[in-house]
Amino acid sequence: MTALALYLLLGACVGVMAGLLGIGGGLLLVAALAWLFPHMGVPEAAAMHAALASSLASIVLTAASSARAHHRRGSVLWPTVAWMVPGILIGGWLGSRLAIGLDGRVLRWCVAVYCLIVAVQMLLPKAGGRAERAEAPRGPGYALAGGVIGGLSAIVGIGGGSLTVPLLVWRGVTPVRAVGTSSACGVFIGLGSALGYALQAPAGALALPWSVGFVYLPAALGVAGTSVLFAPLGARIAHAIDGVMLRRVFALFLLGVGVAFAYSALD
Q1: Of 53, 75, 100, 167, which residue is 20 to 30 A from 91 by alpha carbon distance?
Q2: Closest CA to 161 of 28, 2, 9
Q3: pLDDT 10s digit of each residue in the chain, 267 long?
Q4: What DSSP string describes the chain?
Q5: Would you say 95 and 156 are in contact if contact means Cβ atoms under 8 Å apart?
Q6: Contact indicator for 259, 112 with CB cutoff of 8 Å
Q7: How many CA atoms lie within 13 Å of 36's alpha carbon, on the beta-carbon side?
Q8: Taking the model in full, what pTM does it have?
Q9: Who's near 133: CB < 8 A, 6+ residues apart?
Q10: How far apart are CA 24 and CA 17, in angstroms?
Q11: Structural Rg of the chain based on CA atoms
Q12: Other beta carbons within 10 Å of 149
């Protein structure tokens, strides 16, 4: 019961964070699960893999809820999603396969470096993109981009918003539509990557009941259950506070997470 309460609480925090910024929730979740799992019976050698896999599994439901809300407001560019999805699924599958073969310390370094890159990105002034376009971007290039985004997301356990949104804004998509389209893509990032971690893992990867490969279902479902409910709260808060200051504070938080991962990888 204590473990479930922790997962539910963590899901609420991740949901609020995702609603506030649209990015960063997955990184927060991976960091928390990587710390929690060894205290809950997950073997130390598999803790980082389990944190990534469970985070990605929870993203399926969280992103689906977000995509549904954006779709109701007409802010999901489904033609762009259709072009990106094949690459996303293949990239997620291959990225998870690569991650399974890596040592936990190497994965910690991957997440640490990614945290630092996202933090710097959030601290820098936003670069201007192309002139805003009315039509949905499409073409083979987006399938290739989806493959890269899916692969990187699988390795660091995120829904890809910090990669997809800047790409679409740079290509002339309005920010609100970029976030909505990224949410829809996140469903398939989570799906392809989580299936990869579940089906390509060695037999008895976690040796725990209610686990499928490296995916620990109580954590994934517990987090998803509350993150779906609390994401709208984060969105409401975002409209009531200074967004620039919020991004700076969260960037500093990500810097701390990145440094903590780097330190744990050295230990």
Answers
A1: 75
A2: 28
A3: 588 888 998 888 877 776 666 565 788 889 889 988 988 888 888 999 999 999 999 988 888 887 887 888 888 899 999 999 999 999 999 999 999 999 999 999 999 998 888 888 778 776 555 656 667 888 899 999 999 999 999 999 988 888 888 888 888 888 778 888 888 998 999 999 999 999 999 988 888 889 999 999 999 999 988 988 887 777 667 656 665 676 777 778 778 888 888 887 776
A4: -HHHHHHHHHHHHHHHHHHHHSSSHHHHHHHHHHHHGGGGT--GGGHHHHHHHHHHHHHHHHHHHHHHHHHHTT---HHHHHHHHHHHHHHHHHHHHHHHTS-HHHHHHHHHHHHHHHHHHHHSPPPP-SPP-SSPP-SHHHHHHHHHHHHHHHHHT--SHHHHHHHHHHTT--HHHHHHHHHHHHHHHHHHHHHHHHHSSPTTSS--TTEETTEEHHHHHHHHHHHHHHHHHHHHHHTTS-HHHHHHHHHHHHHHHHHHHHHHHH-
A5: no
A6: yes
A7: 22
A8: 0.88
A9: 171, 172, 173
A10: 7
A11: 17
A12: 29
Question: 151: Cβ–Cβ under 8 A, 6 or more apart, which residues?
Answer: 91, 92, 94, 95, 98
